[in-house]
Amino acid sequence: MSQRPGAVGVRIAGTGSAVPERRLTNDDLSKMVDTNDEWIVQRTGIRERRICDPSKEGTFTLNRDALKNALAAANMSGADLDLVIVGTCTQEMNCPSVACRVAGEVGAVGAGAFDVVAACSGFVYSMNIADSLIRSGRFRRIGVCGGDAMSSVIDYQERSVSILFGDAAGAAILVADDNPDRGCIYQQLGSDGRDWSGLYLPRRAAEVPEADRDNPIRLGCLRMNGREVFKFAVTRFRQIIEDSFKATSLTADDMSQIICHQSNIRIIDSAIEKLGLPREKVFVNIDKFGNSSAGSVGLCFDQLWRAGKIPQGKPMMMVAFGGGMTWASGVWNI
Question: Among 63, 264, 291, 333, which one carries the catalytic annotation?
């Protein structure tokens, strides 16, 4: 593609992630709700997930630690950053933002900071926004995080959501590059708010739709219409991958990795089968970490980056969907 004179590209200088030490296995859950390991694995692919100790861990600490690890990998300090973006939907407080607290902790004093609330799409939304801001010339070094402590909003007396979610955060450092062809070459951000009640987190009774008034899940905890979300995800996931290939004239063979949100193994398998994707190029860690919402894609990205599976000179794709309903994709020249 042709570039305007003076155009800048975007380079990923380093990545990081953070997960709690505590593991919540399917056998642990079977002592809390009516379920068992075989039932959970068959329907979700999950065997265990990481859970925060609320006395010392949470959304803020996960994103802080992930960004610190990314800065170390990039050989940078927080003072080098112009901006910090955090994708999350489990903020401990509405004010200040998680991003402000993270920026303060890593020494990014004076940098801009804001949260992006797009649920499980949060990291991909934030990466796309950061790429666009660097290309605009307004910023040169941005720390991007995506992370959620989903355990803080889960009713562990209810089976439909408690088996799915875990806690994690991922981060990346994006910097301006002289090669304008480097960075995100195609991106999509989308939403359909008409279906918001399929996956939502009500704080007050007045926020609960009439049709969901008998739901036993406590206020302040995540609610999900699993069947409707599954149908949405299977269809939308396939569409945004197809759209990305069509818009870039690339194929799955051209990609080093297709990094999918870790929602449910059946959703990932459906995309692999319907689109004929090479299974070795679709990373899966849901068995060990569950669905960590905005932390999902960032955690996968860091694990792949550190394993050397995202080489320079070959494109890769990030894809996610989440509550809202939201979806996002990004094709990157690394």
Answer: 291
User: Angle, nearest 10°, between helix axes 295-306 and 122-135?
Assistant: 70
Residue span of the structural domain in which 121 resides: 1-334
Separation of alpha carbons 194 and 205, rounded Å: 20
Q: Is the pLDDT of residue 2 over 70?
A: no
The CATH number of the domain holding residue 319 is 3.40.47.10
- pLDDT exceeds cutoff 60 at 148: yes
Contact 255, 315 (CB under 8 A): yes
Q: Residue 97: left if φ>0, alpha if ψ -120 to 50, beta else—which one?
A: beta
Catalytic residue among 221, 261, 264, 300: 261
Contact status, residue 294 vs residue 91, Cβ threshold 8 Å: no
Mean pLDDT taken over the chain: 95
Is 120 assigned a catalytic role? yes
- Cα–Cα distance between 104 and 98 in angstroms, integer? 10
Q: What does the pLDDT look like over 23-35, one tens digit per residue? A: 999 999 999 998 9
Which residue of the set 52, 89, 100, 120 is catalytic? Answer: 120
| C-beta of residue 87 within 8 angstroms of C-beta of residue 123 | yes
Q: Which residue has the higher pLDDT, 77 or 157?
A: 77
Q: Using 50, 70 and 90 to split pLDDT, how confident is the model at 191?
A: very high
Q: What is the pLDDT of residue 308?
A: 96
Cα–Cα distance measured from residue 302 to residue 268, given in angstroms and rounded to the nearest whole number: 19
* 100 labelled catalytic: no
Split into its structural domains, the chain has a count of 1
**Is the bond preceding residue 325 a cis peptide, omega within 30 degrees?**
yes
* 291 has catalytic annotation: yes
